[in-house]
Amino acid sequence: MNAPFPSPAKQPLRLLIAAPRGFCAGVDRAIEIVERAITIYGPPVYVRHEIVHNKFVVDSLKAKGAIFVEELDEVPDGVPVIFSAHGVPKAVPAAATARGLEWLDATCPLVSKVHRQAERQMEAGRHILFIGHAGHPEVIGTFGQIPDGTMTLIERVEDVAALPFPPDTELAYLSQTTLSVDDTAAIIKAIEARYPQVVAPKADDICYATSNRQAAVKQVAPECQLMFVIGAPNSSNSLRLVEVAQRAGACAQLIQRATDIDPAWLEGVETVGVTAGASAPEQLVNEVTDRLKELREVTAEEVVTATERMIFKLPRQLLD
C-alpha cells in the first residue's frame, strides 16, 4: 500500500533567513540610552517621538518606565527627556535647555553626520538638494539644522526636472539614511545630469545597515515565492526592503509579528524568505520562524551577505 500524501499544512517549506537583518548599531545605541537612563534617573523617563519605529520595542520600553510623547511641551519639568534615533531640529534641544530639562540625544551618529554636512554645505554658500520622504522624522530633523529656504526636498526622479535653479547655481546634495539604494542612485544621476557642478557628500549618506539589508534581500528574494519583512508600517527602511523584494520577483509582505501571518499566504509556496528592518529585534524573527514551523515542515537556512561589527558610543552622561 502506498504511503499517504502529506497534508498541505505539513508540506516541506524551505526557509531562507537573510543576514544582515534586524537591529543596527544606531538602534542598539538608542535603546540602550533609554534603558540606562531609566536605571540611572529612575522612571519615568520621557522620550520625544518613538525612539525607533517598532511597536514591540516601544511597548517593551514603556513597561520599563519610558513615556513617549510627540512634542517637548508634553514633558513635565524636572524629568529627563531623550530625543529619538531619527534626530530632531536644533530648536528642540534648545527649547529643552531653556526649560532647564536634562536631555539625552539618541540620534544615530550616521544621521548626525548628515546634519553636520548640511551645516557645512550651507556655510559654503551652497543650496542643498535633500533626497528623502516628506514628513519622515529624519527629514524634519535634518531640515531643522539650517535656516528655512536653504534646502529643497526631492522625493522622486521627476522632481529633479521641476527644480527652479539656474544651471550655474551652487548646489550640493544629501540624502536620508534609510532610502532605497537603487532609487536614490537614479535621483542622484538625474541631479548630476542637470547640474554637473553639484557637490556630492564625501561618503554615501545611505547608512551601512540600510545598504546591507537591501543587498541581502536582493540575494534571497529571487529564490523565494514569498518574502516576509518584519517591521513597522512607519519604518522607512522596512518599507524599502519590501520594495526591494518585490522588484527581485518575490511576493513581499510587511508584518509586525508572527500573528500577522495568514496561513493562506503559504498555499503553493515552496520557498519563503525572512528579513527584518533595522528597528526589529531578533526575537520577532524567531517568532516568525516558530510560527512557520507550526504550519509546515521547515528546513531553515541563513544566507549571509555581510558581517556587521559597527558599535556607537553612548552619550557621556551615561558613562560617568
How many E-type strands? Answer: 12
> How many separate domains make up the residues?
3
Widest sheet: strand order? 10-9-11-1-12
Helical proportion, percent range: 25-40%
Largest sheet: 5 strands, parallel
Please count the helical segments. Answer: 10
What this model shows, in words?
With 320 residues, the chain is of the alpha/beta class. It folds into 3 domains: 9-23 and 208-304, 3-Layer(aba) Sandwich (Cobalt-precorrin-4 Transmethylase, domain 1); 25-108, Rossmann fold (3-Layer(aba) Sandwich); 109-194, Cobalt-precorrin-4 Transmethylase, domain 1 (3-Layer(aba) Sandwich), CATH 3.40.1010.20. It contains 10 helices and 12 strands. It has helices spanning 25-41, 55-64, 91-98, 109-123, 137-143, 157-161, 181-194, 208-220, 236-247, 282-295; strands spanning 12-19, 45-48, 66-69, 81-83, 103-105, 127-131, 151-154, 171-175, 226-230, 251-255, 271-276, 297-304. The strands form 3 sheets. Strands 10-9-11-1-12 form a 5-stranded parallel sheet, sandwiched between helices. It has a 4-stranded parallel sheet with strand order 3-2-4-5, with helices on both faces. Helix 8 packs parallel to helix 9 (236-247). It is flat.
Q: How would you describe this structure in keywords?
A:
320 residues, five-stranded parallel beta sheet, Cobalt-precorrin-4 Transmethylase, domain 1, alpha/beta, single chain, 19% strand, four-stranded parallel beta sheet, disordered N terminus
Summarize the structure.
It comes from Novosphingobium beihaiensis. This protein is α/β, with parallel strands linked by helices. The chain has 10 helices and 12 strands.
